[in-house]
Design a protein that fits this description.
Length: about 130
C-alpha cells in the first residue's frame, strides 16, 4: 500500500514537472518571438532605423516636448489631457515610444512625425523622465 502511494505521488510529480517544463518553454518562445518582432519592426521601418541610429540630445528633446506635447501631457509630463509620461520608458521600448508618437492611433493625440533628429532628441528626453 505504501508502495502504491509512493508510485502515485511520483507520477503526480512527473506530471507536474512536465507541465512546468512546457510553461518554461512557452515563456522562452514568447520572449524570443517578442524580441524578433521588435527587431523585425526596427529593420523594416526606415524612419525608426534612422531615429535609433542617432544619439539624442535630451535638453533639445525637452524643448521639443514643451513646444509640442506639454499642452496635453503637462510641462513636467505629469499628465493633463494626455497620460502621465514620467517613467514611460519603464514599460515602453524605444520602438514603442516612436510608434506611439508617430501613429496618431490614440486619440486625441494627433499623428506627429518629427524629423528623425527631433524624434531622437524627444526619445532621449522621454527616456530620462
Amino acid at each position: 500500500m505504501a508502495q502504491d502511494i509512493l508510485e502515485e505521488q511520483t507520477e503526480d510529480l512527473n506530471t507536474l514537472l512536465k507541465k512546468a517544463a512546457l510553461v518554461a518553454v512557452a515563456l522562452v518562445v514568447t520572449v524570443v518571438l517578442s524580441v524578433v518582432a521588435v527587431r523585425y519592426s526596427q529593420a523594416s521601418e526606415p524612419y525608426i532605423r534612422e531615429v535609433l541610429a542617432l544619439q539624442g540630445d535630451g535638453d533639445r528633446g525637452e524643448a521639443i516636448f514643451k513646444m509640442n506635447c506639454a499642452v496635453c501631457h503637462g510641462l513636467e509630463a505629469t499628465g493633463e489631457v494626455g497620460p502621465r509620461l514620467v517613467g514611460v520608458s519603464d514599460h515602453k521600448t524605444k520602438v514603442g515610444l516612436i510608434k506611439q508618437v508617430i501613429s496618431g492611433q490614440t486619440p486625441p493625440m494627433p499623428q506627429f512625425q518629427p524629423e528623425p533628429r527631433d524624434m531622437a532628441d524627444l526619445l532621449d528626453y522621454l527616456e530620462r523622465l
